[in-house]
Amino acid sequence: MPEESEEIRRELLDMVQSLRSHIEQDIERGRSLSYLHLEGSLTPHFSAGKPGAAGGEHLSVNRRLQQNGFHAMEKVQHELGDCQRCSLSQGRTNIVFGEGNPDANLVFVGEAPGADEDAQGRPFVGRAGQLLTRIIAAMGLSRKDVYICNILKCRPPGNRNPKPDEIHACEPFLIKQIRAIQPEVICALGTFAAQTLLKKEAPITALRGRFHSYQGIKVMPTYHPAYLLRNAGA
Ligand code: URA
Fold it and tell me: Separation of 151 CA from ligand 1 center, angstroms?
């Protein structure tokens, strides 16, 4: 009998651990947690968020969601839904909504998903993404401390540049994501992200390395990691 109860105990522990890691992954990837009845005291990792926002380790999920941008982000994702607002929806495998800490101080904005991102539904997971991950680590942070997204949520065919009508359809969701997060700093990755956010036509070489402003939030344009992979000297 004690053996049996020990087995049940271990099984329950396994279940709790796997549920916990599932939830943590969903949080990290900015996915919906609507399958939870949020009365528990689970402790997902909202590290390096705004001061005072994350609170102690044992705040309930419910309170955390009220305190930070998670709930707001969930609403944005719900509103985006299975988006068909432009023709990129026809060719995509997955929408790449964005992922990370919805209460982050720092948001990285790229251009658009590439093949790897389209396949996985996650931003910056290909070669350029691996470099971005290393850059974030060199800052003493991890991907789950920051928020990562793109101007466009769907992959343009052959990774061509985004078209004005595609930006027009997608930009409202980026604006809402940024409003939900309320970061201190946005890092615009590459010419396209910088020009789109700042509504400027200057090349990245002219924009990079100094702060600009986007709706009152500091924007630091920098080279796109894909450019850095091609130009190590930069
Ligand atoms: N390049 C981007 O701009 N965004 C991605 O998500 C991947 C590559």
Answer: 9
Residue 117 in contact with ligand 1 by CB distance below 6 A: yes
User: In angstroms, rounded to a whole number, what is the distance separating the alpha carbons of residues 87 and 230?
Assistant: 30
Atom of ligand 1 nearest to the CA of 122: 6
Q: Ligand 1 mean position to 228 CA, how many Å?
A: 13
Q: How far apart are CA 152 and CA 54, in angstroms?
A: 29
Q: Which residues pair with 187 in a beta bridge?
A: 108, 220
Ranges in the chain, pLDDT < 50: 37-48, 52-58, 62-63, 65-66
d(CA 227, CA 123): 17
For residue 160, give both structure tokens: 């061509």
Its pTM stands at 0.76
Dist. CA 34 → ligand 1 center (Å): 28
Q: Quick check: helix, strand or coil at residue 133?
A: helix
What confidence score (pLDDT) does residue 6 get?
Answer: 76
